[in-house]
Amino acid sequence: MPKMAARYMLSKYWDGRLPVDPFAIARSANVAVEHEADMEDAFGRFEIVNGRPHIYINPDEPGMRQRFVLAHELGHFALKHGRHFVDTSREFAPVQLDEIENQANRFAMELLIPGFAVNILIEKRNITNFIRLTDAFAVSQLAMKLRLKKLRWL
């Protein structure tokens, strides 16, 4: 389900350029995105406000994390998980036991690192250097490693 939801969002709202811009995708999907100070230990939050989806991102987090948090929160929206989520570091652990948070993490990986785009870079453009791939998708090395394992490139 996360894979199909991410593919749908990409097909409908992505401009096809790397790195995938989750902020542009959110705007195109009519999801309001705001940076909110004083989120304490929260990385991000999703909620429905007056019928419109809103995502709040902690501006104190590094840019790469903000991209992943936004993609994760978009996952809550796209997967129709409910009206309100507050996500801290616990929800972004590589091994997530909570199924809803696991789905949102899988959605984020699919959105930011589309499998077909990885395959094109590796097979057609012969880009096999791990750092170049990581930079092309503007994700952490851990995210890229997990994604390449999932796609059976590692």
Automatic annotation (TrEMBL):
Residues in IrrE N-terminal-like domain copies: 45-149
Gene3D superfamilies, A to Z: 1.10.10.2910
PANTHER family: ANTITOXIN HIGA1, BLL0069 PROTEIN
UniProt superkingdom: Bacteria
Protein name from the UniProt record: IrrE N-terminal-like domain-containing protein
Annotated TM spans: none
